[in-house]
Specification:
471 residues; M1 Pyruvate Kinase, Domain 3; Pyruvate Kinase, Chain: A, domain 1; six-stranded mixed β-sheet
């Protein structure tokens, strides 16, 4: 099944999309990767969804990516007498470590790391930024604050500290248990929440040990101070605009999104733009024009993938949301201005043999009007370097490993196929021609551009560029 676009679609599975028929419909509509959101649902719920996706993959003979999204630490206030209080601007309000029912004067916040990090005038945001507090005094087990922006505050609302780095691991005990569970299942990507520093990625990489790709979710302003290091340590990056939009002013989010996307593209790391992309389609059959423009902007910038969250997890129109995303992407990619923007933001190849070959492959494919670039890669690194070039023709990513084929389902322009192991150079050419014909990328007489590394199976050893014609 060949997609008629280069950017990919990630669809979140949830209560509204947890039947075999619905998951198949989402795939048919255009979902390339399925997200399992471990902030919601039981492990058994996610086990069923995972195996349903794998059964679909076998039936449709297409590699499908599965993304495990870890919940991460959640800072929340406790409960209130009556379930809700009303905070007035200018009033005093205390947060403390007492595990007691709160009222309009105080609330429990059972996270000692927060009080250790607070300073006078530190700003706290509650309930996704609807409530704003400023610290006036603090101790090891309390913080006295002044209400800057008031309103209703109810049980278990979230707390954000945009200007504070907490001495808190990005992996809770729940996350560690979910991570073990997901890796045993065989997920392809792990999305890491609450990333504040490069050490958070290094810790996760050590635990994952190459069993899945590590995707860093950029949702904390502190992470942006170490952006280059975090991108370098990650296998992919997600612009998680929901939490990021709470902790930084909304007017800064578009520029930050572009900055992250361009840096990931320069590094050759897949980048996902996520959160509220078609949010109105949770309840409506069509998006707003602003939402359509938002998705289009991410595609014009060259993002590898765009993600649907509540739209497909709990929305009333999940299939329609995927179809809309698919149509927007296709429309953008047909626009001549899209290709001009990609060319404007082309990045110079690094001084390696692999980059020299992939950059040449893009140029040769464009010069001879090749129908496709075929890459052979055991780890996917060669194919990702080719995707970094954003060629005008599709990329047929061939690999002998199922896990690599599934990971590449996330990458821009890549149609991944699992093939047999290659033994000789002649095998490489014959397999490339056969698969290109079978997957409907080329007809008899069409030229192909092929890249690979000899000896076969050596990661990062791309050293061959070959032109072949379909017979």
């Amino acid at each position: 099944m060949r997609r008629k676009r280069s950017a990919k679609v990630i669809a979140t599975l949830g209560p509204g999309t947890s039947t075999e028929e619905m998951i198949a419909d989402l795939f048919e509509a255009g979902a390339d990767v399925f997200r399992l959101n471990f902030s919601h649902g039981s492990q058994e719920d996610h086990r069923w969804r995972y195996h349903t996706v794998r059964a679909l993959e076998e039936k449709r003979h297409r590699p499908v990516g599965v993304l495990l999204d870890l919940q991460g630490p959640k800072l929340r206030v406790g409960e209130f007498n009556g379930g809700e209080v009303e905070l007035k601007p200018g009033q005093a309000f205390r947060l403390d470590l007492k595990d007691e029912i709160g009222d309009k004067h105080r609330a429990s916040l059972l996270h000692p790391e927060v009080f250790e990090a607070l300073e006078s005038d530190t700003e706290l945001l509650l309930d996704d930024g609807r409530i704003r507090l400023k610290v006036t005094d603090r101790g090891p087990d309390f913080a006295d604050t002044e209400v800057v922006t008031g309103g209703p505050l109810s049980d278990h609302k979230g707390v954000n500290l945009p200007s504070t780095v907490l001495d808190l691991s990005s992996l809770t005990e729940k996350d560690l248990d979910d991570l073990r569970f997901g890796l045993e299942l065989g997920v392809d990507w792990v999305a890491l929440s609450f990333v504040q520093r490069p050490e958070d990625i290094a810790h996760a990489r050590k635990l994952i040990a190459g069993r899945a790709g590590v995707m860093s979710k950029l949702e904390k302003p502190a992470a942006l101070d170490h952006l280059d290091e975090i991108i370098n340590l990650s296998d992919a990056v997600m612009v998680a605009r929901g939490d990021l939009g709470v902790e930084v002013p909304p007017e800064k989010v578009p520029a930050l999104q572009k900055r992250i996307v361009f840096k990931c593209r320069a590094a050759g790391k897949p980048v996902v733009v996520a959160t509220q992309m078609l949010d109105s389609m949770v309840h409506a059959p069509t998006p707003t024009r602003a939402e359509a423009s938002d998705v289009a902007t991410a595609i014009y910038d060259g993002a590898d993938a765009v993600m649907l969250s509540a739209e497909t997890a709990v929305g009333n129109y999940p299939v329609e949301a995927v179809m809309m995303m698919d149509r927007i992407i296709q429309q953008v990619e047909k626009d001549p201005h899209y290709r001009r923007m990609l060319e404007t933001h082309r990045y110079a190849p690094e001084a390696t043999a692999a980059d020299a070959i992939t950059a040449a492959a893009r140029q040769v494919a464009q010069t001879i009007s090749a129908s496709v670039i075929v890459t052979f890669s055991s780890t996917g690194s060669t194919t990702l370097r080719c995707a970094r070039e954003r060629p005008v023709v599709p990329i047929l990513g061939l690999t002998s490993r199922a896990d690599t084929a599934r990971k590449l389902a996330l990458a821009w322009g890549v149609h991944s196929v699992q093939t047999e192991d290659l033994q000789t150079f002649r095998d490489m050419v014959e397999v490339a021609i056969r698969v290109a014909k079978h997957e409907e990328f080329a007809d008899v007489g069409d030229p192909l551009v092929i890249t690979a590394g000899v000896p076969f199976g050596t990661p990062g050893a791309t050293n061959i560029l070959r032109i072949a014609w379909v017979e």
